[in-house]
Amino acid sequence: MSEEFKAGDRVRWKSSSGEIEGEIKEKLTEETQIKGHHVKASEENPQYLVESSKTGKEAAHKPESLEKIEE
């Protein structure tokens, strides 16, 4: 089972431009639109809204693609 995150958690993930760090904003448990992209989140398959520390942009990520940063 994937790790559970909460708002405020610092995380990192891999992208085409390398490793990115950011902050969890909220857990998504319903289908939604983010900047024109359809996010198929549900209670059984949640995703997380994450804000990039570098760009300030928000995107949805599946929990298995995120790694919590221990501070």
Descriptive account of the structure:
The protein contains no helices and 7 strands. The strands form 2 sheets. It has a 5-stranded antiparallel beta sheet, with no helix packed on it. Strand 1 and strand 2 form a beta hairpin. The N and C termini lie far apart (23 Å). The mean pLDDT is 93.
What are the key terms here?
5-stranded antiparallel beta sheet, mainly beta, 71 residues, two-stranded antiparallel ribbon
Quickly describe the structure.
With 71 residues, the chain is mostly beta strands. The chain is built from no helices and 7 strands.
E-strand count: 7
Shape: globular
N-end to C-end Cα span: 23 Å
- The chain-level mean pLDDT equals 93
Rg from alpha-carbon coordinates: 11 Å
The tally of structural domains comes to 1
Content of β-strand: over 45%
Order of helices and strands: EEEEEEE
Layout of secondary structure:
Elements: E1 10-15, E2 18-28, E3 32-34, E4 37-39, E5 47-52, E6 58-61, E7 67-68
Antiparallel strand pairs: 1-2, 1-7, 2-5, 3-4, 5-6
